[in-house]
């Protein structure tokens, strides 16, 4: 899931806070997770296979936020 996809999901209110059931309004600290594998012959494979982002509820009276690699788990679809 790209950062743009996360932004779009938040803008379209598709991600739902599990605590207050309101739409998640913010995010921070997006980062791709990169696995680097080096074998005994000094050949390096780099595989970018995920991303990590902190989702922030942002609704009044709710302090929920969570660091996750699977932001779509909070999708209501
Ligand atoms: Zn909330």
| Content of β-strand | 35-45%
Shape: elongated
Q: If you average the pLDDT, what whole number results? A: 85
What's the arrangement of strands in the largest beta sheet?
1-2-3
What's the helix count?
1
For the report, how would you describe the main beta sheet?
3 strands, antiparallel
Number of self-contained structural domains: 1
Annotation, overall tally of beta strands? 3
CA radius of gyration: 16 Å
Bound molecules: zinc ion
Structure classification:
mainly beta
Range of helix content: 10-25%
Low-confidence stretches: none
Query: What is the distance, rounded to the nearest whole angstrom, between the alpha carbons of the first and last residues?
Result: 15 Å
SSE order, as H and E? Answer: HEEE
């Amino acid at each position: 899931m790209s950062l743009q996809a996360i932004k779009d999901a938040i803008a379209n209110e598709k991600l739902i806070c599990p605590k207050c059931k309101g739409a998640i309004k913010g995010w921070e600290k997006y980062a791709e997770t990169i696995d680097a594998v080096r074998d005994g012959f000094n050949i390096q494979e780099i595989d970018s296979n995920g991303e990590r982002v902190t989702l922030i509820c942002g609704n009044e009276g709710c302090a929920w936020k969570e660091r996750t690699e699977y932001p779509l788990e909070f999708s209501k679809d």
